[in-house]
Amino acid sequence: MAFIDINLVLAQPFFLCSLVLFLIGWIITFIAACTIGAWIHLVWVDIFYNLFIILGATLAVATQSVHNYRLALLTFIGGSLTLIFISIDATINVSHAPKLSAVAAGLLIQSFVLIFWVIYFGAEEDSLALRTINGFTIPRAHGAAGTGVASAPNGVMNATQPQDNNNLSSVVVAASSNYAYKARALYSYEANPEDANELGFVKGEVLDIVDNKGKWWQARKQDGTIGIAPSNYLQLI
């Protein structure tokens, strides 16, 4: 079961900045629309529609569920862009109406963010765009895999970063542990031959996980092999 972890959002600078920018545009649109009233009903559809997108995208990243909902997110984002462009066309061309110009400005900001999110949530995990975005991921003290898009989008932590093998001595592998989680390998990993506790796996392999705290997770493969695996190569499912 995936739990909400706000640190996963904070660890994704690109997504976090775009989310703040989206909220700024949404607030501008909302305040301007409140001062106008119900003159353009479609604007209110945009406002509530985009609010659900904000909540959905944030929850997907915070629960490491982008890989499960990326197609749904992209579908809703496409619908939102269509509504936004129609509303912008209806408001930006009205002369001597500063309040409508403010509505259009807020919608325009939101549209820029949504276009970025199409790339962020839609790009494949090995694409240049997503690898560049994930390269700015902030490591976490209790590091779980992020969301990026395969992540996600959704935020996936950069799997090319070397692991600190000096931390391995603090990880104790217990065969009798309760494996409460499952995780999918985002990338293949070759175990360090100098450490008998490390677990190697291939991309897409599903592992049983004891706890999702720390840089290394105790894991069990389907054949019963037990060891530790780097958390930024895995994503909870």
TrEMBL record:
CDD domains to which the protein is assigned, alphabetical: SH3_Sho1p
Membrane topology: Multi-pass membrane protein
Domain SH3 residue range list: 178-237
Cellular component annotations (GO), alphabetically ordered: plasma membrane
InterPro entries assigned: SH3-like_dom_sf, SH3_domain, Sho1_SH3
Swiss-Prot/TrEMBL GO biological process terms: osmosensory signaling pathway via Sho1 osmosensor
Family from the record: Belongs to the SHO1 family.
Entry protein name: SH3 domain-containing protein
Taxon lineage: Eukaryota, Fungi, Fungi incertae sedis, Mucoromycota, Mortierellomycotina
